[in-house]
Backbone:
């Protein structure tokens, strides 16, 4: 038995998803071409984007997908407003700097949402802005950003919205019928519960069609990748065949669970069990329930006690539960993910293990 991954990805996958990797696939073979095509179609359907959006997959971890979106889908004279409240917003800023795209940032604290009036002020006083970049669930803290309201505002201002929905896609609503956006990036190994190795971008037809010549990098050129898939339905370079086979299985299981709604329901229940259980033990949650996305939960490390993160981590790992270090810059924290192929029983087992560890290590919780 593998340890339970209470992490935001890679995460615990189903046995059937792992088993899908037990075959070898010829990358130019019709069977693989069909598999690839079916994945791309399913992902477009998940945003109700049939006829309006293209799915372009990109090898690598999620960051590769975000960087290919940033570099390939903006022109060299773009001016971007980035909404930052955590590490992934900062990472998009860093990408703009690498790629050479002009950008400004509106940053708020890691436990706060952006003020919509302030976003509007910034847009009104920077009339040369072309894009807004936003993160849906900021995995740094686990905060849920108000993507519907951000999208309404950006659409009203006639700007182009790009979303990093890495830790949200498949579990939080993202229908292109209600949320207006030009591109969104996500990956195989978060809420879709595949294995790591491939990301994807869903992009509006008119945006990808005019993206030729934007990219700073051949490998990350989404336009080039898309052209290849349009011409012969094949990848330009070696595709991650086994990862894609597992991804298709994972997408089928997502659909069987009831799609985004079904997954959201299980994760919300998981999240509630963790939050209630941790509260009962005495741990303090960083975010209020209204700001908390049902993806990953940040807890404050107890002060003036026997708490030491490494020790706590190791003791839980010995009981087969892997948690995640904190990523906040302002406080000592740790995180517990509630996504992956885990259910209410696993969450109750997690809380039980944490109670035992707190007793064994004689941690006093203030
Ligand atoms: C996980 C994640 C990424 C990508 O991270 P990788 O480690 O490159 O897969 C990007 N943005 C968000 C919000 C994430 O949660």
Residues:
């Amino acid at each position: 038995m593998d340890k339970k991954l209470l992490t935001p990805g890679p995460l615990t996958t189903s046995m059937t998803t792992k088993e899908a990797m037990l075959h070898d696939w010829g990358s130019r073979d019709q069977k693989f071409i069909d598999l690839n095509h079916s994945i791309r179609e399913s992902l477009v359907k998940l945003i109700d984007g049939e006829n309006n959006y293209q799915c372009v997959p990109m090898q690598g971890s999620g960051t590769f997908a975000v960087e290919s979106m940033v570099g390939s889908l903006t022109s060299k004279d773009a001016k971007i407003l980035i909404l930052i409240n955590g590490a992934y917003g900062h990472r998009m800023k860093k990408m703009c700097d690498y790629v050479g795209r002009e950008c400004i940032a509106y940053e708020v604290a890691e436990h706060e949402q952006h003020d919509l009036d302030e976003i509007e002020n910034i847009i009104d006083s920077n009339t040369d802005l072309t894009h807004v970049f936003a993160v849906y669930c900021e995995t740094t803290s686990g905060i849920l950003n108000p993507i519907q309201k951000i999208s309404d505002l950006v659409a009203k201002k006639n700007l182009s919205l790009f979303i990093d929905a890495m830790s949200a896609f498949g579990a939080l609503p993202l229908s292109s019928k209600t949320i207006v956006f030009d591109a969104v990036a996500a990956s195989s190994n978060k809420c879709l519960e595949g294995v790591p190795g491939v990301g994807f971008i869903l992009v509006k037809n008119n945006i990808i069609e005019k993206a030729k010549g934007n990219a700073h990098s051949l490998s990350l050129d989404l336009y080039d990748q898309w052209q290849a898939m349009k011409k012969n339905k094949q990848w330009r370079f070696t595709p991650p065949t086994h990862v894609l086979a597992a991804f298709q299985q994972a997408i089928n299981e997502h659909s069987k669970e009831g799609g985004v709604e079904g997954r959201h329901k299980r994760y919300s229940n998981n999240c509630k069990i963790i939050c209630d259980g941790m509260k009962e033990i005495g741990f303090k949650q960083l975010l209020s329930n209204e700001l908390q996305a049902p993806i990953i939960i940040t807890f404050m490390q107890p002060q003036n006690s026997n708490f030491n993160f490494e020790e706590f981590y190791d003791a839980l790992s010995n009981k087969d539960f892997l948690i995640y270090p904190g990523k906040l810059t302002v406080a000592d924290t740790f995180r517990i993910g509630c996504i992956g192929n885990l259910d209410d029983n696993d969450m109750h087992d997690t809380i039980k293990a944490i109670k035992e560890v707190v007793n064994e290590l004689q941690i006093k919780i203030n």
Q: What stands out?
A: The radius of gyration is 21 Å.
